[in-house]
Amino acid sequence: MIKIFYAIVLILSLVSLIVNKNKTEQAYKIAIQKLLNILPSLLLMVILVSVVLYFTPDKTIVNLLGKNNQFLGVVLGLFFGSITLMPGFIAFPLAGILLEKGVLYMVLSAFTSSLMLVGILTYPIEKDYFGAKVTIMRNSISLVITAIIALATGLAFGELF
């Protein structure tokens, strides 16, 4: 399936080159520059996640985030997701790795949903644009929604009751 997407991107890039070579070259230069700007922090994040996963025994991960500790696992998922600033293309493969290690779906749901919806680290920026009251309200509502999503995931996958 991914090969199909690569083929489509290649074809559309060639069409773009034919239609307007200058704009296409300019777009690629901007894209490469943006990639180079975020690459150091992206690589650092991948390395840190890899090191933590390497040095944390699977048994510890499963004990904290597995069937024996559902409530604690969801709370930890909500907490770490809320305070982490990580792009989805790193978070979702990480969730797949954690799933293979025995972490519950509802914990992964709590982590990934709070990662995308709740922004503790982005609070100062949001506060400047929306004001403190709106930012706190948005994050609080998002946290509640994320907890509901985690519980619904647990019910759907038979991890609760």
Q: Please, could you describe this protein's structure?
A:
With 161 residues, this protein is an all-alpha fold. It folds into two domains: 1-55; 56-161, no CATH class. The protein has eight helices and no strands. The protein has helices at residues 2-19, 21-55, 58-65, 70-83, 88-100, 105-117, 123-130, 132-156. The longest helix is centred in the N-terminal third of the chain and has 35 residues, at 21-55. The model has no long low-confidence stretch (mean pLDDT 90).
Brief rundown of the structure:
With 161 residues, this protein is mostly helical. It contains eight helices and no strands.
Largest sheet: none
Unreliably modeled segments: none
What's the end-to-end separation, in Å? 37 Å
SSE arrangement, N to C: HHHHHHHH
Share of helix, binned: over 70%
Q: Could you report the average pLDDT, rounded to the nearest whole number?
A: 90
Number of strands: 0
Question: Total helix count?
Answer: 8
Q: Quick one: overall form?
A: globular
Please indicate the percent range of residues in DSSP E strands (runs of 2 or more). under 5%
Structural class category = mainly alpha
- In total, the number of domains comes to 2
Any idea what the radius of gyration is?
Answer: 20 Å
